[in-house]
Amino acid sequence: MAASPVLPKLVGQRVKRREDPRLIQGLGTYVDDIKIVDMQHVAFKRSDVAHGRIRSLDTSAAESMPGVKAVLSGAQIAEFVGPMPIGTPFPSPDHHAVAVDAVRYVGEAVAVVVATDRYVARDAADAIVVDYEVLPAVVDVEQAMTGQPAQVHADFENNLAVALVPSGTGVSADLKTIDDSAIDKAFADAEVVVSQRMLNQRLAPTAMEPRGVVAHYEPGKDTMTIWSSTQNPHILRSFIAAMNGMGQDQVRAIAPEVGGGFGAKINIYAEEYVVAGLSKRFGLPLKWTEDRSEAFLATTHGRDILGYIDIAATRDGKVLGMKLRLIADIGAYNMLLTAAIPTLTMMMANATYDIPAIRTTLTEVFTNKTPTDAYRGAGRPEATYFVERGMDMLARELGMDPAELRRKNFIQPDQFPYATQMGAVYDSGDYGKALDRALENASWDELKQQRDAAQAEGRLVGLGLAMYVEVCGLGPSSSLPTGGWEHSQVTVERDGRISATTGASPHGQGNETTFGQMLADQFGVPLEHITIHHGDTGVVKQGIGTFGSRSQAVGGTAIHLAGAKVKEKMAKYAAALIEANEDDLVFEDGRISVKGAPDSGKTFAEIAAYAYVPVPLPEGLTPGLSEEAFFEPANNTYPFGCHIALMEIDRETGEPTLLRLVAVDDAGNLINPLIVEGQVHGGLAQGIGQAMIEEVRYGEDGQPLTGSFMDYAVPRASDLPRFEMDSTVTPTPVNPLGAKGVGEAGTLGSTPCVVSAAVDALSQFGVTHIDMMLRPEKLWQIIHGGQS
Amino acid sequence: MAQVSITVNGEQRSADVDPRMLLVHFLREQLNLTGTHVGCDTSQCGACTVLVDGRSAKSCTIFAVQAHGSEVTTIEGLADGDQLHPLQNGFWEEHGLQCGYCTPGMIMSAVNLLKDNPSPTEREIREGLDGNLCRCTGYQHIVNAVQHAADKG
Description:
The complex is a heterodimer.
Chain A: H1 20-23, E1 40-46, E2 52-58, H2 60-63, E3 68-73, H3 74-78, E4 102-103, E5 109-115, H4 118-127, E6 129-134, H5 141-144, E7 160-168, H6 181-189, E8 192-203, E9 212-218, E10 223-228, H7 233-243, E11 251-254, H8 270-282, E12 286-289, H9 292-298, E13 302-313, E14 319-331, H10 341-347, E15 357-366, H11 380-398, H12 402-409, E16 418-419, E17 425-426, H13 431-442, H14 444-456, E18 460-469, E19 486-492, E20 498-502, H15 511-523, E21 530-534, H16 551-578, E22 585-588, E23 591-594, E24 597-603, H17 604-612, E25 626-631, E26 640-649, E27 656-666, H18 673-692, E28 724-727, H19 746-762, H20 776-785
Parallel strand pairs in A: 1-12, 10-11, 14-15, 20-21, 27-28
Antiparallel strand pairs in A: 1-5, 2-4, 2-6, 3-5, 7-15, 8-13, 9-10, 9-12, 13-14, 16-17, 18-26, 19-20, 19-25, 22-23, 23-24, 26-27
Chain B: E1 2-8, E2 11-17, H1 23-30, E3 49-52, E4 55-58, E5 71-73, H2 86-93, H3 103-116, H4 122-128, H5 140-152
Parallel strand pairs in B: 1-5
Antiparallel strand pairs in B: 1-2, 3-4, 3-5
Helix pairs in contact in B: 2-5
């Protein structure tokens, strides 16, 4: 028999996605697509004042409407839904799932309706009349820190959610004793100091699928099934079980198709607790689907960190020290990870540079706004933005090429693993290589000449460059209160096909494809013989979830380790069946055979048939081919890259146009470069969106001014240029795949490089920094009003 | 209640509906055609785009009764049996989707775009899809997908 051609290796190939056929035919199942017999609909009445006391709540009109099953006030909900738990060790104010006596942001739920139909539920919610005693709204974060104009929570004086936390050089291990001698010396020795206040503005994550929940408590079995548009069904299961006094074994959480998350679907929300709690109370299946207008109010926002940065340097461009004072406007309440997100900004303040002294401080402040939590990048884009804009200002002050200033201060390849001043240990890196590649791809020197020529003609053209390093592959369990591992069970089924579970539940990342590619190579079988199960705690026994660019580095590694265990056992069964030494066997083309003698081989189906009916049972083996593995990473991973932007601003209108965006990203080894490109593209769009057009705004009365897609600008196809992509590859030693993670990378470098390009274009008007977003009116003022 | 009769994906469908029922809810909830999605409530995002009498339309902005007597095509009716539409193929080949939520609407808008302009430039594709928001892809692979379909179409 002639040997069949060996299956090509799939890892590293641009394999098209296995998820797509169902999604391009409208056959995916998202939460709102789920129907259960006798299912009722839930709607929330939400506060339309930012800060107030509830004087009265009149539900009589709503209750009398045909089709309305129940109307519940916050106090009634509080009888069976306890206070909202958080996932960080910071102090947290009382937070009812539905407001009981006070409201603290526009959109906070004040009452709940259960009805037969979603239209009726909405009508009934509208018919609820709430009378508020309106209190002054706390909107300005720095004013809030003085306790003015009001306190959001009585027990948190001066609205300080997290009082000043220092970090960096000169702080003792317990973070209590401050010794500023190193940073003071750096600034005393400095020949140049640049200082700037910068706002990394509040954003709305806006996954295209709003949130949704279906909960089905079955009284006969005393079990709860909850479908939710979530990034982490296992964490959801734990919290829903605890809230309902049920065991984790009695709750099944399912994340079906999830239409994007971007960090905002990590949090466990009031609506999830309330819908589950009501289903248990009524013994009925219930559905709630978020409207977009609701999502702008009730889904967590991201960013909103004010940074005061000072950089001390020598005249020849060596950075001696950096101070970064951070003030985070976290909105009205602590949600699951709210308080932890800005700590990541502190953690990554070292950026890509070898800086002798860094002092950072962080203060987190309550205001009468929607709570913040993770949004793509979650703390790292903010750090990158502050430091990279600061470095850009320093380069301008020194008259140095911004690329050369960076190069002069890089952590060098031979310094890895590199312990930063901020307590991180960067795993691996070659920042100069990424910079060089980006400069080459952008034709940096020619580009500078083109810019100069254009400016000489009177055109407002500018160039911006930014480096980034981020913390991904989260992470050791010491850094995550949920645990930082991932889990997988890999099974060679009785027919020889392979199934694998993963707790890294995707929402667009394509894990069914990338994890399949890995297993196909590991076992030497076609991709079509593999199924990846995810997003269902009834099927996937353990898991953490998908966030922090961790699914490949942590989840992928768990699959790899479980696969290796199954493969080892399978080799023993094959050795017994073929009567060969297991060390002489090769896995190839869906067969296991003696190396060099393919005719000796047996198919996966034949070996599985033996393993599941093991007569005779080989000595030392148990039946079956199914093994599980937990993977606990010893460290995070630290991908990096360089982004370059070319921008032109219309002198007459102030309208900025992004002409080029050159990206070089290093995420370590890549499983599927096509999917990686897609991930970076999406991140770039969001990073550019922040720089140019996105901003959540509030009026002085705490009323949101950006409550729909008519006011909040998500980038459209015509807003973006064709991205120029490339990658360098610096594997991580943290996991056997060498993969670092790439989901958030695009949001890091793009934002500061785009803003720096705008500043470069307008530098002739004396401007050295422009706060985001780059509203044409703001740029026009700089051009025509002489304002900086 | 109002009687509506709409030809959906080639099949005549009749029902008594609330006069205020949106076409998208008629499709999703009465007919269980859940491939058409709802992503906003202000007609910006385009996730609900279908073809009404051959032209792309946002089904969250039309009452079911307004579509009475019309022919509606949804994503479920786009393929020709087992044969994917060139745009469906293009999106698959070029990785034109990630979470997939905007995808049905994006594809239906692109059908209209290519009908009007079978060989669009990149700029024309980007401007032609401005009524459809995608938060995952940064649009580049969507542009490639439409170009792929235009080349093969």
